[in-house]
Amino acid sequence: GSGLGLGLGTMSLLFGNPSVGAAAAADDDDDIYGGFDYSIDLNPRGATAFGANLQPNAFSIASAAPGTAARGGTAYRGPPSSMGRQVGTALGNRLTTGQGGPGDPARPMTSVTSSGYSSKPRTSFDPLSMGDAASAKLAELEVTHEDEAKNMEMEVNGLIEAAADLGVKGEYGLALEKAKEAHKKERSLCKHRENHGLADQINLDLTYAVAFNLANCYHANHLLDEALQTYNIIVKNRQYPQAGRLRVNIGNIYYEQRNYLQAIKMYRMALDQIPNTGKELRFKIFRNIGNAFIRLGQYQDAIQSYETIMSGVPDFQTAFNLILCYFALGDADRMRRGFQRALSIPIPGLTDLVEEDDDLDTVDEAEATGQKRVDGLRQELLLRRNEAHGVILTLAKLIAPRLEDGDIYKGYDWVINELKTEHERLASQMEIEKALHHMRNKEFQAAIDVLKSFEKREKKLKAMAAVNLCFIYFLERDYEQADRYADMAMGYDRYNAKALVNKGNCFFVQENYMRAKEMYLEAVGVEADCVEAIYNLGLANIRLGAHSEAYQAFEKLHTLLPNNPEVLYQIANFHESMGDLQAAAETLNVLVARVPSDPGLLARLGQIYTKEEDESQAFHYHLESYRHYPVNLDVISWLGVWYVKSELYEKAIHFFERASQIQPNEPKWRLMVTSCYRRMGNYPRALQLYEALHDEYPDNLECLRYIVAILKDMGRPYNEYQEKLNRLDRTAAAAPQPTTLTRKAEDAPQRGVSRPPKPSGQNVDPNAAAPGPLAAPSAKVVSRNNGRQAAAADDDDFDDAEVDDLLPTW
């Protein structure tokens, strides 16, 4: 196994004499070393290979025994490791190293021991004794700086990959932390290589990757200034030959910042860095340039960019943007040409051999029912087709009303004719859109004529037409026809949520709320986010008295449409009906924030605060309601009564006069104005108004009683009015029912006090609480009879009219 043994073996091939060895073996079989007289002096005189104390000795090199197979394809082989001993096939005694035969001189120890040889076999070959602890420590100390740099580089690569994975998962904050850590370690790696003379091994690609990853993470976290700074550092470094393409990313950041001119500049600089062979990338940059020009309102420049793409590799998104520019310029001719070009764009993956509508839809139904295994490729083709059809249908709806100035429907007819060539289903959908346009213009008969033309079309189109016909007849209150077409739509497609909702509406107007609830539940089962079905389900539950189920329906709808005013109103109405006025007020406050100018909501919120006895908030919301809608008599009367309670009679007069202007034939508002002057102590003005009112309404008992009382207090003749009053009193006593606006004669005011007491002479406590008739209008949940009872229970000197006549209930 040693180098010395290999060298001696080679010399045996050079100096051996096989012919002599064969003859000697024939003469004497016991002499296995016969035929070889050559020996090597391992330590000639004067040499110190084995030390000065060792005497020179010689050993002979034996050959292979005759007739045995030699290694390596020859008749000779090198000596074994125990040099000088006899070797044979079970012949002779085995000699140890340094020991010869009887009578032979002792030979020196050979060098095979120092080279690691041992007669006992070892588990592993370790000639340099590196297996001990000292050797292991030495090996650790011999780790080079280059190895350290490689380890650091592996760590940086791992951090970059981790940041990329987190970015894909949407965890942009953690991705940014990893990117920053990778940038820090990469800087340390570069310094390590520079300090240890390994600057030529600095990996520029790794530095580029770290910086690009960091900039991308800044952008994902909306740290746009930091992203711009990092990108600029990359593009300004000339050691990165492909860094100019990153100007596209810089342009995108400027686009997000609405700095469209700078974005266009960056896009064009990136365009100069990309060769003509990169067509797809160049066209994408052209699209970005066109989008930026649209934001600037420069439609002609945007058209140039989009037309460049359409002349190269057209796509539906670019076609849509191009026609949008034509639409903004009002160019009908170019809109037509652009629409025709969009129809000629092939859908990626779909060939002429594929029946786009029928085959794909048939297979889709088979997969839905489990008759066929789901095909991922077919699903992708179906997705592409739906996206393309969505763009085409949107374009058709956009340009159809603008193609003809004189007749809108001619534009619809042109679009429908163009679609019938290759997109029959889209043409049918445009016919339905034409019918909907008739409905928006309240041309119901024309819409009905268009929709009835679908009776001989395919099944799905029939269902769509039947749903719309049901809706039209429902709006026209022709519930019999609506019910017929609802049944027809359900017959064509039982799992059509809109058809089920229409059928439920027909049951609802028939007051069959249980059947309506069943239809709405079925519609929700077909389409879980059908907002119409959920809303109507809540209304049906209210009619059935299932308020908790109604509340659950509205709460579910609130999660789907958190800002919908109708849903918020229903939730607030539920809380109010349950007596939870605080929750109702909170919900209405949210609703008022969504619809701040709705006078009905403001008045409703004011009524709730009135019930909670929060007069300041109630006054605020009533006043806001009056500001938005100053002709609501309920709000006007509430504000007038509130000012009377606050003894601000001048302001109360303003509101009662406004009410008298709205209802000039209603005498009670003028009586309220006169009462305010009477409370202020301005009796001459009050008498003047009472006399004017008596001239218009001579049979008004209330007016005559106040005239008589005021004339008595002023010391003026009143016999004429007293006779009229007595006559009317006798007539009223004979009548089965008394006239409205009555008042006892002795209730006329006395003169001489700021707030006159009752005419009977009974004193009124000025600190007494406001009476029942001065209270704010009752809410919807309070019955009118209860209001009358409350009004009769409390006495007040301002009862010129009954509370129900003065303040209508909600």
Features of the shown structure:
810 residues, mainly alpha, 2 strands, 62% helix, disordered C terminus
Question: How would you describe this structure to a colleague?
Answer:
The radius of gyration is 53 Å and the shape is elongated. The termini are far apart. The longest helix is centred in the N-terminal third of the chain and has 24 residues, at about 145-170. Helix 15 (about 375-400) crosses helix 17 and helix 23 runs antiparallel to helix 24. It is built from 36 helices and two strands. Residues about 1-30, about 35-95, about 350-355 and about 740-810 have low confidence and may be disordered. A two-stranded antiparallel sheet has the order 1-2. It is mainly α.
Helix content: 55-70%
Low-confidence stretches are: 1-29, 35-95, 352-356, 738-810
Name the overall outline.
elongated
Residues in β-strands, percent: under 5%
Query: Which assembly state applies to the chains in this document?
Result: single chain
Which value, in Å, is the CA radius of gyration?
A: 53 Å
Name the average pLDDT: 75
Across the major sheet, the strand order is: 1-2
The secondary structure category is: mainly alpha
